[in-house]
Design brief:
By secondary structure, this protein is an alpha+beta fold. It is built from 18 helices and 32 strands. Helix 7 runs antiparallel to helix 8. It has a domain of 193 residues: Tetratricopeptide repeat domain (Serine Threonine Protein Phosphatase 5, Tetratricopeptide repeat), CATH 1.25.40. The strands form 9 sheets. The protein has a 4-stranded antiparallel β-sheet. It has a 4-stranded antiparallel β-sheet with strand order 2-3-4-5, with no helix packed on it. Strands 6-7-8-9 form a 4-stranded antiparallel β-sheet, with no helix packed on it.
Amino acid sequence: MTTVNITRDIIHRQIRDNRASGFQRFHHVTDSFIKRLGLEAELQGHTGCVNCLEWNEQGDLLASGSDDQHAIIWDPFRHKKLTTMHTGHAANIFSVKFLPHSGDRILVTGAADTKVHVHDLTVKETIHMFSDHTNRVKRIATAPMWPNTFWSAAEDGIIRQYDLRESSKHSEVLIDLTEFCGQLVEAKCLAVNPRDNNYLAVGANGPFVRLYDIRMIHNYRKSLSQSTSAAVHTFCERQKPIPDGAGQYYVAGHLPVKHSDYKNRLRVLVATYVTFSPDGTELLVNMGGEQVYLFDLTFKQRPYTFLLPKKCQSSTGDVQNGKTTNGVSNGIHLPSSHICFAGNKMHSSSTELPPHLEKIKQQANDAFAHQQWTQAIQLYSLGIHEASSNAMLYGNRAAAYMKRKWDGDHYDALRDCVKALTLNPSHLKAHFRLARCLFELKYVTEALECLDDFKGKFPEQAHSNACDALDKDIKAALFSKSESAEDKKANSSNRFHSFTRKESIPEDELVLRERSFDYKHRYCGHCNTTTDIKEANFFGSKGQYIVSGSDDGSFFIWEKETTNLVRILQGDESIVNCLQPHPSYCFLATSGIDPVVRLWNPRPETDNENGRVVEDMEGAAQANQRRMNADPLEVMLLNMGYRITGLRGVGPDGSDDEDSSEGQVQCRPS
C-alpha cells in the first residue's frame, strides 16, 4: 500500500527551493507537529549498534556510524542507502561528522580503537589516519568558521585539534583535562558554539561541564612560545595549561554535594552529550546518572546554595566567585528579620492571578491533593511560565517537588523557595520549606540556622509539630556528625573541596569549580545510566523543544521553557542513544542498540494509529526514576522487562513519600 506523505514531499521540494526556506525554518516544529510525530521509516544496512548520526548542512544527507565499523550515507527522504564504506577502524565507531564546506565529500570518524580517520566519500577511501589518542575517541566536533579544522574528545582526558592544512598525520593538544582532574578523567563529549565558533564545550566524568575560549588558549600558548624563544623567562614557575579567563565551568548546584552519595550507590555522574542552542546562547547537557540540564550562557546565575538569603548586617560579606569576604567558606548566608538577597533585587509579588491562571493553579492544587506530584509540578510550571513574579506558584511547586523526591527535586524546591522569598519575604511556607530543603541537601548547620530564623520571624509557628519534627531531625544529624572527626572536618570545609581535596586536584581547578554557574532548567523522565553516548538535543529552529534518548528504549520530548514532558515515543527495542533533528524541518533521526536508523516526522492527520506512542508518560517517568536508583540486580530485571511495582513517591533513598515531619506548614499548597 502506498501512502502519500505530504510532509516528506514538501520537505523534499523545499530543500531545493531556498526562496521558501526562511518561512519553513521558522515554523518547522510546532506543537501540533509534535503531537503527530510518528515513525516514518526504518533504514536497514548496519549489522551492529548505530552509535552516531549526523545531518549534512543542507539536510539532504544523513551519515551513520556503527559497531560494525562501517559508515553509511543515506538519502533519508527516499529511504535509500547511497554509500557504504568500511572506515578502517578496528572497533566501534562513536562519532561521525561532515567536514564543513567540503561539498559533503569529507567525513571524519572517531572510534573505540583510539583512532580518528578522515574519509573521501567520492572515492570511498580513508585519506588521513590519526593515532594520537591513547584511549577511546568518543566525539568529533567541527566549526563552519574553520572548514579545515576539527576537534576530538577521548577517554584519555585530552581534547585534540586537527588542521588538515598543517598536518595530515599529527594533531595538537588543545586541552589536557588530566592536568586539572588527575589521570582518571575521561573526556566524553564536546561541541562548538554554532554562532561563535571560538567557544568549545567539553563534557567528562564528574558533574562539571567546561566551556573554553579557543582563541585565548591559542594566543596564550603563542605568547609563551615567543617569550621562551626570546629567553625572557629562564626560571619561571610552572606554566598554566590555559590562561585565566579561558575556562568557565557549569554545574547543577546540588551535584557537587551529592557526588560522593552517587558513588556509594554505584552511580556514575558523567556528561554524555553537550550541545549549544541554535542561537548559541544556551548549553544543553545530558548528565549520565542524573537528568538533562539547560545552562543559560548570557544570564548566568550562581548555584543557589551561594544565593541563599544573607544577613543584611553582614554588608561586607558579598559573594564573590563562590567565596565570601567575611570568612564564611561555603558562601551560604541565611535569612534574618530583614531579608535581602545576594545578587538579587527585591520584587513585589501579587497573589492575584488572571482567571485562566487561577484555574490552572486550582487544577495543580487538586493534583497535589491526590498525590499526583508530577502533574501538579507541570501545572504550576505552566502558571509560572506566564506569571513569573507570583511567589505563591513557586512556593506551591516547591511543595510538590519535595513530595515527589526525584533526583534533584529538593534542589529545585530550594531554588523555588529562594525565588518565592525574593518576591515575597513574608512567605511563611517558603521559608519553612527552605529549612527542610537545606536539611535534605545535607546543609545541616545552615538548616538549623534557617529554622531558628523562621521561628524568630513566625513565633506562632515555633512550636508546631512540623517545626519540632524538623528541629529534632536536624539536631540528630548534627549529633551524628559530631561523633566523627572526619565528618566534622569535611563539614567545615568548602562543599566543592570536600570531595576534591583527596583527589589531589590543583588549586586552579578548585577555583574554577567554585566559580561555576548553575542551570536554568532541568528536564526529568528519561533514564541515562547504561550507556555513555546518550544524546539530548534542541528540536526546532529556536530550540523550542528538548529531546533525549533513554535506557527504556524510548525517547522523550519536553517543552523547553516550561520543562513539561509532552511526548514519549518508543524508539528502540532496548536503548535510544542518538537523536539528531533535521537542521530545517520537523524531521528526526534516532538510533540505539538496534542495527537500524529510524526516521520520525508528523504523520497525516488521518493516521490515527501510532503504536509507538507511550501513553502513560507519568508511569514511564516514574519507572525510569526507579531505574536510575535501582541496584544492579533490579536494573537487570527491568532490562529483561519485569515491571517493578510500588513506584509512586519512592525517593532515591528508597524512603516512602509520606513524611510526617514535614507537617502542615510545609506540605499543603497555597
